[in-house]
Amino acid sequence: MNGDSHEGRSRLALILRPLALLVVVSGVVFTLAQLHLAKPSVPSAAAGTKIAIGDSYRGSVAFDQTCGGCHGVGGKGGGIGPRLIGDSISLAAVKQQIDAGGGSMPPGLVKGAAERDVLAFVATIIKPPSG
Amino acid sequence: MLVADINSTYTSIVTSVFSTTIAAKVWFATAAIVLALVQITTAARLWGHLQPIIRLPTATVQRVHRWSGRIAFLFTLPVVFHCVFILGFQTGSTRVAVHSIAGSFLYGVFAAKVLFVRDHHSYPSWILPLAGGTLFAVLGTLWVTSSLWYFTNIRVGF
Questions:
Q1: Does residue A113 sit in the same domain as residue A70?
Q2: Total tally of structural domains belonging to chain A
Q3: What is the mean pLDDT of residues B142-157?
Q4: Would you state the pLDDT for residue B78?
Q5: Which residues of A touch B (CB under 8 A)?
C-alpha cells in the first residue's frame, strides 16, 4: 500500500517536474518580454519636435525594404540616395522629403504608420542640426 | 541611461560585423536552425535511423549531437536578448504575434527537453523524440516568422 502510494507520487513528480519547468521558464521569459526592460527611448533627433514617430525597429525593417535600395541598408549610403547615418538634418526636413519627395526621390514612398516607424528609425541615425 | 547604453552597446557590437541588428538576428537564428537540423539528424541516427547515410561511429555522432545543441543554444542568446529586452512582447500582426508567443515558449521547451535528457531512464522512450521534435517545431516557427520572412521580404545579406 505504502509502496503503491510512493510509486504514485514518484510518477506524479515525473509528470509535474517538466511541466513546472516549462511553465516557470516560459512564464519568466513572457514576463520579461512584457516588462520590456530596455525599451528604446525617444531618439535625441525626435526629442522636442512635434513630429510623430513610431517604432524604430519596425522602422528599420521598413527602411531597408523601401528606402535601402537608394540610401543603403540602415542608411549607410547607396548609389543614388545620400548616406543618412550621421547626416545633419532635422526630422522635420526628413518628413518633408518623404511627403513631398525631391531630387530623384518620389513623394509618399511610406505613409501613415509606416512613415512614423521610418521617421523613428531615421531619428536614431541622423544628427540633429546644432543651434 | 542604462537602457540607452544597453541598446547602443548591443547595436555597436552586432553592427561591427553585420549591417543592422535585424540582419545579425536573422543570421544567428539561421545558424541555430541549421544546427537544430544537425540535432534532428544525429538524434535520428542515435535512434537507429539514417545509418546508411550517417556512417560515423556512435560516439562521434553523440559528440556532434551534444555540441550542435550547445552551439545552437549560444546562437539563440543574442537573438532572445534583443527580442525580450529591447523589442518586448508584440502583437502588431499575425506573424509578429505568432513569433512572440512561440518565442515565449522556446526556453521553457528547451529546459523541459534538457530535463528529459538528464533523466531519460525514468521516462518512456518516446518522450525524448517528442521533446526534441517539439523544440525543433518551436525553433522552426520562430525562424519562419523572422528569418525566412526577412529573406523573402527584405533581402538576403549580412
A1: yes
A2: 2
A3: 90
A4: 94
A5: 14, 17-19, 21-27, 29-30, 32-41, 57-58, 60-61, 64-65, 68, 73-74, 76
Share of chain A above pLDDT 90, in %: 42
Q: Which domain holds residue A24?
A: 1-39
List chain A residues with CB under 8 Å of B157: 73
Determine the distance from the C-alpha atom of residue B35 to the mean position of all C-alpha atoms in its chain, rounded to a whole number: 8
Q: Rounded to a whole number, what is the distance in angstroms from the first to the last CA of chain A?
A: 85
- What pLDDT, on the 0 to 100 scale, is given for residue A7? 77
C-alpha cell at A94: 526628413
Co-location of A2 and A28 in the same domain: yes
In a domain, B158, yes or no: no
In this structure, are A66 and A12 located in the same domain?
no
Classify residue B148 by its DSSP letter.
I
DSSP codes, A69-126: HHH-GGGS--SSSPP-TT-B--HHHHHHHHHH-BTTBPTTSS-HHHHHHHHHHHHHHS
What's the pTM? 0.82
The rounded mean pLDDT for chain B is: 91
Asked if B18 is an interface residue toward chain A (Cβ–Cβ < 8 A), one would say no
